[in-house]
Amino acid sequence: MIAIRPERTGDEQAIRDVTAAAFKDHPHSDQSEPFIIERLRDQDALTLSIVAEEDGSIVGHVAFSPVTLTPPVAGWFGLGPVAVSPDHQSKGIGSRLIREGLARLGSDGAAGCVVMGDPDYYQKFRFRHESSLVFPGCAPQYFMALAFSGAVPEGTVAYHPAFGVE
């Protein structure tokens, strides 16, 4: 049975290991995902960190961190990285992590969330390409938004500096 819970002190290495394993052979990864999570945590920008646990072992993780919009709009977050250990993929664990994270953000009063990724996957969570939001350097169809309340704002999105290349 898979339990979904917030990250706790002591989970850091297991999150790093799961994330590294999940992205090891991913064709669009530069293998920086574990380091992004660590930098977000170190810079107090890991707003929401949720794990999937089975029999005391972490098998999945999702991170949410603040994004900035220009012109400024408060309360927007970015989803990712999301990772599930290779031997647990295609079992709905990633979806459960994302749904739990989005529900928590929404109930905590967030305005919305953005994600960069496969539209076929993220549209099932109600993410949509919104021409009013731009993420420079990303093909528009791969950058999507989900407003929890109100309309999707207009502007340019920047992820936290922890996403920068080392």
What does this molecule look like?
The chain is α+β, with helices and mostly antiparallel strands and about 170 residues long. The protein has one domain: Gcn5-related N-acetyltransferase (GNAT) (Aminopeptidase, 3-Layer(aba) Sandwich). Helices cover about 25% and strands about 30% of the residues. Strands 1, 2, 3, 4, 5, 6, 7 and 8 form an 8-stranded mixed sheet that branches. Strand 3 and strand 4 form a beta hairpin. Helix 1 runs antiparallel to helix 2. The longest helix is centred in the middle third of the chain and has 15 residues. The protein is globular.
Main beta sheet strand tally, sense and closure: 8 strands, mixed
What string gives the helices and strands in order?
A: EHHEEEHEHEEE
Could you tell me how far the N terminus lies from the C terminus, measured between alpha carbons in angstroms? 37 Å
Structural class: alpha+beta
Note the beta-strand portion.
25-35%
- The low-pLDDT segments are none
Count of domain modules = 1
Quote the CATH topology: Aminopeptidase
How does the overall form come out from the CA principal axes? globular
The CATH homologous superfamily is called Gcn5-related N-acetyltransferase (GNAT)
Descriptive key words:
166 residues, alpha+beta, 25% helix, eight-stranded mixed beta sheet, Aminopeptidase
Write a brief caption for the model.
By secondary structure, the chain is α+β, with helices and mostly antiparallel strands.
